[in-house]
Amino acid sequence: MRFFSEAEVEALLDPTTLLAALEQAFIDLSAGHVIQPLRSVMGFAAEGQPVAADADHGLLFIKPAQVGNALVTKLITLVPSNVTRGVPSLLATIVLMDPASGKPVAIMEGARLTALRTAAASAVAANALAPKASHTLAILGSGVLARSHALMLRLVRPIEAIKVWSPTRANAQACAADIGGQACNSAEETVRGADIVCTVTNAQTPVLLGRWLKPGAFVAAVGAPRPTWRELDDEAMANLVVADQREAAEKESGDVILSGAPIYAEIGEILSGRIARPQEGATVIFKSLGLAIEDAVAAALVFRASQTQ
Question: What global pTM score does this model have?
Answer without folding.
Answer: 0.92
